[in-house]
Amino acid sequence: DAGVIQSPRHEVTEMGQEVTLRCKPISGHDYLFWYRQTMMRGLELLIYFNNNVPIDDSGMPEDRFSAKMPNASFSTLKIQPSEPRDSAVYFCASSLTALGEVGYTFGSGTRLTVV
Amino acid sequence: GESVGLHLPTLSVQEGDNSIINCAYSNSASDYFIWYKQESGKGPQFIIDIRSNMDKRQGQRVTVLLNKTVKHLSLQIAATQPGDSAVYFCAENKEGKLIFGQGTELSVKP
Q1: Cβ(B40)–Cβ(B60) below 8 Å
Q2: Share of chain A above pLDDT 90, in %
Q3: Which of A7, A48, A69, B108 is the most exposed place for a label (fewest CB within 10 A)?
């Protein structure tokens, strides 16, 4: 298995633009998580899905952020409009269970820079 | 512009020595904990886990200790190698979700 695949690896965009981050989880994993990592806040859970259904989005910072999972093999995290404070590394992770016994598998992340 | 970030706690050890990385968790009801390793430019990677009904669990060169009385978790790495240089995170089960700690940067000197 190729693991969790995220794209793009790097994204530089101007303030106000729409940004879409993409994730392909490991086949057979029922749970998908979106995390954001910054030096100030560390790794923050934004939202997670179970069987393509959003279960908990309490970590989504504000209405500018939205996430979808149209099928078991694809998820997107969208920021519209983007702001400089959204600059961070965004990770997608997938797991067989909610707590990730034997661990979540993380993708390599998307480094977002909003200028 | 971006705010100035906090510096992670750093542990510097000599190659071959043992490393101990500590973590305090917040939720006394947490019943599951995991240690992750994150190398530069990569996502976190699972190292070892432990449930609250255990005090100690051993893996290959790593041992996790859990002290529920003081809500403290530690990761011991035996015979630390340069490839162990990374940021290490503990994570706890909080309300059914894995919540990550701040992280500790381990630097191994050759």
Answers
A1: no
A2: 84
A3: A7
